[in-house]
Amino acid sequence: MRSEKGRGTVILRRTGGAAAALLLAASLAQAQGRDTLILTSTNDSTNSVAVFKLNTSGTPSLSLVAMLPTGGAGGSAGGGAGALQFSQDLGAVANYGSNTVTQLARVSNSILVSGTINLATNCVQPISTALTENHLFVVGSNCAESHTWPSGDVDHVVALTDSSAAQIATGTTWAAVTLKSGSVLKLPLAQKGGLQGTSTDIALPEDANNTPLGEAFWGDLLAINPAHSADSFALLNSQGMVYPVAGPQPAYPSNAPCWLVKGSGNIWYSGNSPGQAISVFFSDSQGGAFYKNVALPGMPTDITISADGQWLAVIYTATDGAHIGVFSIDSHGDLAPVATSSAVGVSAFDGVAFSQ
To answer: Please, what's the largest Cα pairwise distance for the chain?
Structure first.
C-alpha cells in the first residue's frame, strides 16, 4: 500500500437553484403517489423505528407518523453509522443489544416490522448494516457477515479480531469495514454478491489513520473519514492505494468529518460532529478538495441521500434531544435547509434512511 496526497484537481460548483430542486422533487413524489418517508432508530433499551413524513406542499415540514418497536434492544456504545438501511420496499435496522436485525417493509405509505434476522452463531453486537439487491451485510464487534436478502439466511461470515468496527459498506467487487483503531478491512465479494474468503487489512498513512468512521463507495472507489486526522477525507481503490485529502481547518477537535454519503457526480457529504456542520468535498479518482461547511444546530451522527438524489437527511443531537434535518440538493450539489423535525423525547437517533 502506498499513499498520495489529494491533488485537488476538482471544479467547485456554483450555488443557486435550490428552490427549483425543491419544486421538482415535490412534483415527482406527488406523481408517484407515494410519500417521502425518513426512518431512524431510537437505539434505546426497547429499540424503535421512528418514521417521519416529509411534507412538501405549502411550507415544508417533517412530521412524526409512526413509532414502531423493533422487538429488539438498542444500546450501541456509539461511534457507528448505517444502523438503518432501506432499499426499494424493504429495510433493515440493527438491534445492538439483542444480536438481531429487524426487517422492515413498506406497504403503500406505511412502514411495517416484517421479521427478525438472527446474527450468525457467536456473532454479537451489530452496529452497521448495508443492503444490496440480493444481500444484507452486517458488522458487529466480532464478525462481518452477509445474508441472502430478503430471506435473511446467513451466507458467509468473516471473524474479526478487532472489535472497533464503525461501518460496513459495499462496492462492486469488494466490501469494506472501517476500524476506529486506525485501518480499513477489505472484504472480497463473491460473484453472486455476498462475502467470500477472509479480510485483508489496508493500513492507512499517518496523516489519515486517526479514527476512521464513515465510508461510502463510488463504484469500486471507497471514500472514508479518518475523523480525527488533519486529512479527514481519503480515497481508497481496490488495489489498496490510499489518497488522503485535507479536511476543514482547524482540524480535530474543532472539525471532524465523521459520517459520509456519496452525492451525485464527484460530490461527497460528511456529518462533521464537533463542527456541527455538513462538510462538502469534491473528488476525482485520486484526490480531492474540501469545499465548505454547511451549518447545523447540533452534532450530526449519520447522514443519507434519497434515491432520487433530491434530498439529504442528517440526524443530529441538540440540547433538547435528537432531530432530523432535511436539505434539498440543487443541480450543482449545493444544499438548502428545508425542514427539521421537532423533539420527540429521544436523546439520540441511530441510523437514517429514506423510503420513497
So the answer is: 53
DSSP 8-state symbol, 25: H
The CA angle 47-49-50, to the nearest 5 degrees, is 125
Please, are residues 63 and 339 in contact by the beta-carbon 8 Å criterion?
no
Classify 18-28+37-343 by CATH class. mainly beta
C-alpha 350/C-alpha 127 separation (Å) is 9
CB atoms < 10 A from the CB of 190, how many?
A: 14
- Tens digits of per-residue pLDDT, 58-93? 899 999 999 999 999 999 877 899 999 999 999 999
Do the beta carbons of residue 140 and residue 154 sit within 8 Å?
no
Which DSSP category does 98 fall into? T
> Hey, what amino acid is at 7?
R
Give bridge partners of residue 289 from the DSSP assignment. 282
- Please check whether residue 216 is in contact with residue 262, taking contact to mean a CB–CB distance below 8 angstroms: yes
What is the C-alpha separation between 210 and 129, in angstroms, rounded? 23
User: Do the strands 174-179 and 165-170 form a parallel or antiparallel pair, or are they unpaired?
Assistant: antiparallel
Smallest Cα–Cα separation from 264: which of 230, 315, 301, 216? 216
Secondary-structure percent of the chain, ordered helix, strand, coil, rounded to 5: 5, 50, 45
Q: What is the pLDDT of residues 5-48, one digit of tens each?
A: 444 333 333 333 333 333 344 444 444 589 999 999 999 999 99
Question: What is the rounded CA–CA span in Å between residue 117 and residue 103?
Answer: 7
Residue type, 200: T
Reduced to 3 states (helix: H, G, I; strand: E, B; else coil), residue 284 is strand
Do the beta carbons of residue 346 and residue 24 sit within 8 Å?
A: no
Spatial separation of the C-alpha atoms in residues 155 and 68, rounded to whole Å: 28
Partnered with residue 223 across adjacent β-strands are 216, 235
Backbone angles phi, psi at 49, to 5 degrees: -100, 120
More confident residue, 103 or 1: 103
Omega before 188 within 30 of 0, i.e. cis = no
- Alpha-carbon gap, residue 47 to 40, rounded angstroms: 10
- Using only C-alpha atoms, the chain has a radius of gyration, in whole angstroms, of 19
